[in-house]
Amino acid sequence: MKKVKAVSAIAATLVSAFVSAACAPAEVPLIGVTDLSGGNTGAVKLEKGDKYADISIRDYGDIRIKLLPECAPVAVENFVDLAESGYYNGKKFHRVVEGFMIQGGSPNGDGMSDPNEKTFAVERAYNARHFYGALCMANSLGRNSQQFYIVNNTERREPADVNADYYKNEADNARAVIDKYRSEMDAETLKYYELIYNSNINTYNGMTKFRENLSDEIIEKYKSGGTPSLDGGYTVFGQTIQGFDVLDAVSAAKVALSDPDNPNSEKSKPVSDIIIESVKIYTYEG
Fold first, then answer.
1. Crossing angle for the helix pair 165-181 and 187-212, nearest 10 degrees?
2. Residue range 47-58: mean pLDDT, rounded
């Protein structure tokens, strides 16, 4: 069965990095499911004892972000550990899409993560949304690691525009391949398709639940920008409170095709490197 055999090499590579996700349950972990206050839903400001991050970007300035451990404790701890170890110093924002987000933290600036780094599941909280300035974890097959992104869209968005069916269809496609070709698959290929299925069905379930748990406050805040189409599929663990002008300036950087040999690739690779000088973590003293 040529189709399955052809992906074996790819499957082996992906599974080596994300094998722990193969057994991930299909249920969607949620925090604060009955409480829509806090997080970044309302006004976000620093209170005594809050942790915040200053992301210093060469030639641009600083973006100050309040971290949200009550919404995503594992993501915050992971980000703080990486920042305090100096991991982000000198890394790039390798992906910039105006009206969407800026993404950084890849070890080599190519969008790939280190397979030897720990990974952890998507954390979801109804009161942590993809508003303008939200700090979020980029994930691969439903696993977070090192890379993060900051939402930069300033135009009005309607949560009703969320299309979770795409992820349901992707999950169904993976399940159909598993059911049809299970007996012909080697173990690594089977794990690969199970990863695809679990990741997409979790994303679908998460997006659906987030769409069902909207408040008037959330709907109103999205009128000032954000990307509600990502709610429930990715971890939101911080919110920009200062440096929106810096975020906007980075977002307006000149970009080229991410793959110059592919005219259909995303136009998101900065023409000039955008370097993270440092990410420093502080505790607000009031």
1. 150
2. 97
